[in-house]
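Case 873 in the screening queue. Each case pairs one protein sequence with one candidate compound; here the compound is zinc ion. For every case the pipeline is the same: read the inputs, emit a complex structure as C-alpha cells, and attach any notable structural observations.

Predict complex for case 873.
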Amino acid sequence: MSKPQADMTEKNTSVMMRNGFCKFFGIALLFVAFSVNARDHFVEKDTIYRRNLGVISKQGPYRPSRTLKNDLIHTRLDVEFDWLRQHVHGTAVIQFKPHFYPQNTLELDAKGFDIKGISQLDTDHNFGSESQKELSRHTAKKLDYTYDKRKLIIKLGREYNAKDTLYVKIDYVAKPNEIPRDQADDNPNDKGLYFINPDGQEEGKPKQIWTQGETDGSSCWFPTVDSPNVKFTQDIYITVDSTYKTLSNGLLISQEPDQSGLRTDHWKQTIPHAPYLAMLAVGDFAVAKDMMPNGLELSYYVEPQYGGDAHAIFGRTPEMMAFFSNIFGVEYPWEKYAQIAVRDFVAGAMENTTATVHEEGVQTDSRSILDGNSDAVIAHELAHHWFGDYVTAEEWGQLPLNESFANYSEYLWSEYYIGKNEADWQNLQELKQYLTEAETKQVPMIRYFYKNAENMFDSHSYAKGGRILHMLRKYVGDDAFFKSLQNYLKTHALGTAEISDLRMSFEKVTGEDLNWFFDQWFMRPGHPTLKIKQDYSSVTSKVQLKINQAQDTLATTVYRLPVKVDVWVGGKKNRYDVIVDKTSQIIELPAAKKPDLVIFDAESQLLANIEQEKDRSELVYQYNHAENFLPKYEALASLEGKLQDSTVRNVLIKAMTDPYWKLRQMAISNFAEYDGEGFAAVEKIIQSRARTDRHPQVRAEAIITLASFGDNNNDPVFREALSDSSYQVVSVAIDKYLIGQPNDANDVAAQFENSPNDAIVTSVGNYYAGQALPERYDWFLEKMKRMKPSEKYNFLQVFGKYLIKSKQDVQRKSIPVLEGIARNNPSYFVRFGAYQALGLLTDIQGVAAIRKDIRAKETEPKLKEMYTQFGEF
Ligand SMILES: [Zn+2]
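Case 873 output:
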C-alpha cells in the first residue's frame, strides 16, 4: 500500500518550490512544524527483543503470527448491493480443511454482519462454477454457530482431521458503515467496503463501490480468516446494474445479464493469495488495454473523461512488468494486471492481487504528464505483486518484507528508466523523510510489539526499509543481490515469510553470515550519526579520518559500516574500501600530498547522519569533480547564500547549466533577489533557462527567480511562458505576470480560469482573491467543487484570502460551505484546510463555536492530533 500522507510528503517534494508552488506546500510545512513541536513528547525507544506470548511492552502487546487451526482453500462469493442502505447481500462458500490438529469448529472473522444462515454442503462439487440454484441443492445440513459481530464460530457437528475437506455456506448481510468499534485498536475509518455517492445526490461525483482490505478490512464485507498468513483461491460473482463495470481479482470468466436490468460478473483467481488482497470495484469506467508479449492482459480503469489519457498515465506498465520480471528473476506470476482509479480512496494506492487501486489524483490529462508522471506509485504497487502478494509478510510486524521492497522498486525503476541521478535524488528525499520521522520515533524495523497494525505503515517500513535494501545491494553487489531476491521469491513462492527467511536467502547465495547486517538494520532502532574529522600528515604522507559514532549506542548499537572513501590528490582519485565498526576510530589512507578532497561514503549509500566539515575550496572541488549526485548536491547546498564570493558565484553560474536538472534548479534558486556584481549576465542566463531549459521545474524556478528581481526586464519572459507546454510553468507564469498588473490582466485571467489544470485555476484564483469582487464568489465555489483533493487544500487558502478581503455578507455566505467541507470532506487535509479558512472568519459570531465543535467531532487520528497541537489557530 502507499499511504496518502507519505504521498503528500514524498511524491511532491519533487515539485516543491519556494513561493508556495507545491501541491501540498501548506500541509508539508505544517508537518515539519508538527514534528518539531512534538519532538520532546514522543521519542520512542524500543529495545525489547523478547518474544514471549502474553508479554506486553510499552509499545503494545506481543504479536504472534496467527495460529492456523483450519486452512482456507477456496472462497466463493456472491454479492449484491443495497446502495441506499449501504449494505452488501452476500453468500460465501468456504472450502477448508483442518491445518494439522483435528477441529470441530471453523472460526471466521466477520465484522458487523447479520448472519442469515449457515449450512454445510454435501460432496466435493465444483463449487466455484455452479449456479446459486445448483449450490442450494447441495446443502446437506444446517450448522449451529455463535456470533458476537466479530468472530463467527461455526460448529461442525463432529471432529474432522487434516485429511478432510469441508464446505460451509454462509448467507449474510455486511454493513460496512455499522461496524461496532469497541476495541482499543479499532480504527473508526476502516470499513473494508466503501459506497461513494450512494444516493447520487452529490453533484459531479460518480457513484462507485470499492474495497480496501489492508490490514483487516476484508472481513468487513466477507467472512474469512483475516490474517496475512492465510491464502486461498477465489470466485467472486458480482451482481450490479448492467450500466456499471466491475473489477476484481483474477480473470473475468463470464457476464450474465438478467431480465431486470442487472448483470452478474464472474471473476476467478486460481492462484492463492492473502485475504487483505481480495478486492472488488463497481462504477462507470473507461477501460484501456495493453498486452504483454506472452498474451497477459494489462488494463487501466479510469473515469470516462480520462479514457483518452489512460495510456499516457499508465502506459509504461508493460515495460515495468518486463523490467521487474527480469531483475527479480521470477516472471510476473499472476493471471492479469489491472489498475483502477477511484474516488475518495483511503490510501495512496493498494496492491490488490491483479487489481491495483489508485486514488483519483493519478488521473491527469496527458499534458500534465510533462510535469511528472505517477511511475513511482505505479512501480511500487506492481512490485508488490512479487513482494507482498506472491511472498507475503506473515504478520504485520514483518511489514518491511512488503513495503521496503515496494519502496526500493521505485528507486530501481527510476535508475533504469531515467538514470542514476534521478534515482539518487529520490533516494535523498526518502532518506530525509525517514530522518524527519526519526526525530520523534525510533523503533525496530521488525516489530514484535505494537498497539495498532496501522502504526507499521510509517517511514520506517517504507523509506528506511528501501534505504536498507540499497545498502544491502551495495554490500553484496548487484549479482548477489538479485540472485538472493530470486532465491527468496522461489523458496517462499505463494507462501509467507519472516525477516530471517530473507537473511537465509542472502546467506545461501553469498555464503556469508549476514546476521550482523540484519540485526543492526532490521532488528534494532535508530541509525548511525557519524562525526568525521580530517587531518593530513606530510611526515607519513597519510590522510587521517577520525570517525566517531555519535548516536546513542545504548538505545541502538555500534554499527558495522563498510563504505568507500575517495581521496583526490593532484586531480586524481583513489578509492579505498574501509569498515567503520567502533564508536571511535582512526582510518589512515595514503596521500602523496594534502588531498584536494576526501569523500567519505563515495557511493552515497549510507543511511546515516554524516557530519564532516569542508572548506570553500573543498566544496568547490567537490562540485567540479564528484561523479555522483549527492556530493554535488551537498556541495551546492553548502555554498548557498555565499554569492558575494566570486569563486562561489562562478560555481553557481556554472551549475545553472549542469547536466542534471535538480542541480540547475538549486543553482538558479540561489540567485533569488540577487542584485550584486555581474547582475546583468546572471539575469540573462536565467532568462535563457526560463525560455529553453528542457525541464519544466527548472523553467518554473527560473521564472520565480526572475520575478524576485523586481525589475520589469522580465515581463516579456512571463508573457511568453503563458504558452509554455508545461502546466506548472504556466501556473507560475500567471502568478508572476498578473502581479505586475498589466493592462491585459483580466483577459489573461479569463483565458485561464477554466483550465483543466487545478494549479492553474488556483493561480487565477489568487489573482481574483486580490480583487475580491463579490460576483466571483460563485466561481470560487464551482471550482472548489470540481477540484481534486491534492489541489483543494491550496485552493482553500486562496479562497480564504478572497474572503478576508470581502464584505461580511460574502463572508457569512461562506460559513456553511466551509463548515460542510471541514466536517464531511473525505480527505482529512482538505477538512483541515476548510477549518483553517474558517479560522479567518472568527470575528463573525458563532464561527468560533462551530470550529470548536468540528474539532471535537473529528475521528481521523492524524487530524485529531493536529487539532490538539494547532487547534486554536
Ligand atoms: Zn506499498
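Case 873 observations:
- Residues 675 and 709 are 8 Å apart (CA to CA).
- Confidence is low (pLDDT under 50) at residues 5-50.
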